[in-house]
Design brief:
This is SKI-interacting protein SKIP SNW domain-containing protein. The chain is mainly alpha-helical. The chain contains 20 helices and six strands. Helix 9 packs across helix 10.
């Protein structure tokens, strides 16, 4: 079988790789590397616009073309960007630590790789870790000293009011060879020696340039590298924790949105703070509570002490009153008290304390009995202990047996809410019926208010002896006045009787006698008629200078005639108040009265009383 090489014809030319490469290089040298773009000549620039920097060449803008042109980039705004170019390391990975190194010097050490967290191996043979030699230490020390002296001298010279002239630098000699050589140049000299000297500086010259410009701050320290853990699934709680609430201002709400309260409080950050309450608050509260309790106990003890003192003083006074009453009763009954035994005063305090203990024991026993038998009664007694009598009357307390002896609790109907309208308590505007019904039953009030209850304070004031003494008629006159009825019982403190119509001139009786045809007998003397008339028509008048005087009104004392031969102006006085008495003073009105005096059955004319100015004149006339 024949091969392919045997079938194909033999090659005419030989292939040499080196010849091919040489031919390619020669072709590349012949090909132009760049193309020079030039503007079209004048007359052929219609529709042509310069778009790249090559269109401008080395010249400026084209004024005949009305567009914005920026030859060589002049006048064009420079666009800035904070994006960094992507850099790769030796392994072809992106260098993310370029961001941390941005703005810092190349010699600054920045730890931005995981290898930086690993401890660096220490080699004892490392030359960088060897101690420096003596010469190196002295050299560095001298440099440091000179630098510090320079700084200190500058500070001192700046602080001094007069600055010394700075020391000039030494002169420098420079060999100068001009480029133009010839006889016509530099006076035919080929070289010159120049002595360079520093110019003298005026120490009083103000600064020429501003050096107080604020230098911008350097970049801050690079952020700490964050080492990320391997990717894992995030839980719901972590997602909620990573939710950052929007910042809501407490002062501004320009658009007027209605912001829920929970959203407003979420931005406050108070939910992230751990509330820690200082234990001193509890200690302070406990101390205040204890102090308040102690103060209350002290106040209560002080009040109880004051009450006991007042009670002791009151009991002493009551005991003194009992002793005085007992002494008065014994003296009145003729009983002689026993003389006090010597040494009894010493035991007086002991007796008082024993009595006080007995009273306290009785009170405690009474409270226990009430609390055991009727607790509600105890509360009611304590509540009504200090109630005023007016409140008790208003609530019906002074009359416990009212309403048929009912034991049910009574309430004042005026204290309840009324379901009626305005017509419940109002009537006609013209009618005067303010008191439409009686307040209480008249008989019940008189029995409950004006009559004291029995057996009150009998053990305190000796009620049995007092009742026996009160039964005796000590202040009863031997002869009562006419018209008095002691057997009649009164239901109140004051008993009123209807007064007969006054007839000062006895006209009604005169007309009655005339109608009946009665005649006056001879033995009916003037004095007896006057006495009967006075006995029927006279009324009591208070013996006072300040009594009211009424016009055309007569009032006379309703008293029997005095005994024969006696004159008692204070007891038997009858008043006649007329027009003449009104013009006088009250004292003169009392003197200008009609006084009827019986002197041995002889009547004194009433007209003669106006002549007397005092009682002495009247008594002298009677004698």
């Amino acid at each position: 079988m024949s091969s392919l090489s045997s079938i194909l014809p033999a090659p005419v030319q030989r292939f040499d790789r080196d010849d091919e490469e040489r031919a390619y290089r020669a072709q590349m040298q012949v090909m132009p590397i760049t193309s020079n773009r030039t503007a079209p000549p004048y007359g052929h620039r219609k529709g042509w616009l310069p778009r790249t920097q090559e269109d401008f060449g080395d010249g400026g803008a084209y004024p005949e073309i009305p567009i914005a042109q920026y030859p060589l980039g002049m006048g064009k705004k420079q666009t800035t960007s904070n994006a960094l170019a992507v850099q790769l390391d030796a392994e072809g990975k992106i260098k993310y630590d370029v961001i941390a190194r941005q703005g810092h010097g190349k010699d600054k050490v920045i730890h931005s790789r995981p290898q930086d967290l690993l401890p660096k191996p220490i080699d004892d043979d490392d030359p960088t870790l060897q101690r420096p030699s003596e010469e190196t230490v002295e050299e560095n020390t001298e440099k440091t000293r000179l630098a510090l002296e320079k700084l200190v001298s500058g500070k001192i010279s700046a602080a001094m009011p007069v600055r010394h002239a700075e020391k000039q630098a030494p002169a420098q000699y420079i060999r100068y060879t001009p480029s133009q050589q010839g006889v016509a140049y530099n006076s035919g000299a080929k070289q010159r020696i120049i002595r360079m000297v520093e110019t003298q500086k005026d120490p009083m010259e103000p600064p020429k340039f501003k050096v107080n410009k604020k230098i911008p701050r350097g970049p801050p320290s690079p952020p700490a590298p964050v080492m990320h853990s391997p990717n894992r699934k995030v839980s719901v709680k972590e997602q909620q924790d990573w939710k950052i609430p929007p910042c809501i201002s407490n002062w501004k709400n320009n658009r007027g949105y209605t912001i829920p309260l929970d959203k407003r409080l979420a931005a406050d950050g108070r939910g992230l703070q751990g509330v820690h309450i200082n234990e001193n608050f509890a200690k302070l509260a406990e101390a205040l509570y204890i102090a308040d309790r102690k103060a209350r106990e002290a106040v209560e003890m002080r009040v109880n002490l004051e009450k006991s003192k007042v009670k002791t003083i009151k009991e002493k006074k009551e005991q003194n009153l009992r002793d005085l009453a007992m002494k008065a009763r014994e003296e009145r009954a003729g009983i002689r008290r026993e003389e006090p035994v010597a040494g009894a005063d010493k035991d007086e305090g002991l007796l008082e304390r024993d009595e006080l203990r007995k009273d306290r024991a009785k009170d405690r026993q009474r409270e226990r009995n009430i609390a055991r038998a009727a607790p509600d009664k105890r509360n009611r007694l304590q509540r009504e202990k200090d109630r005023d009598i007016s409140e008790q009357i208003a609530l019906g307390k002074p009359n416990p047996n009212a309403a048929g002896g009912s034991r049910e609790t009574q309430f004042d109907q005026r204290l309840f809410n009324q379901s009626k309208g305005m017509d419940s308590g109002f009537g006609d505007d013209e009618a005067y019926n303010v008191y439409d019904k009686p307040w209480r039953d008249e008989g019940t009030i008189s029995r409950s208010i004006y009559r004291p209850s029995k057996n009150i304070d009998n053990d305190l004031y000796g009620g049995d002896d007092l009742e026996a003494i009160m039964k005796q008629k000590r202040f009863v006159p031997d002869k009562d006045f006419e018209g008095t009825d002691r057997n009649r019982r009164r239901e109140g403190p004051v008993q009123f009787t209807r007064d007969v119509e006054e007839d000062p001139f006895n006209l009604d009786r005169f007309m009655t006698d005339a109608k009946k045809g009665l005649k006056r007998t001879g033995d009916d003397s003037r004095s007896s008629r006057d006495y009967e008339r006075d006995k029927e028509s006279l009324t009591d008048v208070a013996d006072d200078d300040n009594y009211s005087i009424e016009n055309s009104m007569e009032k006379r004392c309703k008293t029997p005639p005095p005994p024969s031969g006696q004159l008692d102006l204070d007891l038997y006085r009858s008043c006649r108040i007329g027009q003449t008495a009104v013009k006088r003073s009250p004292s003169q009105a009392l003197l200008g009265i009609e006084l009827r005096v019986d002197l041995n059955s002889a009547s004194l004319p009433m007209e003669m009383l106006d002549q007397f100015q005092s009682e002495d004149d009247l008594r002298a006339f009677a004698k």
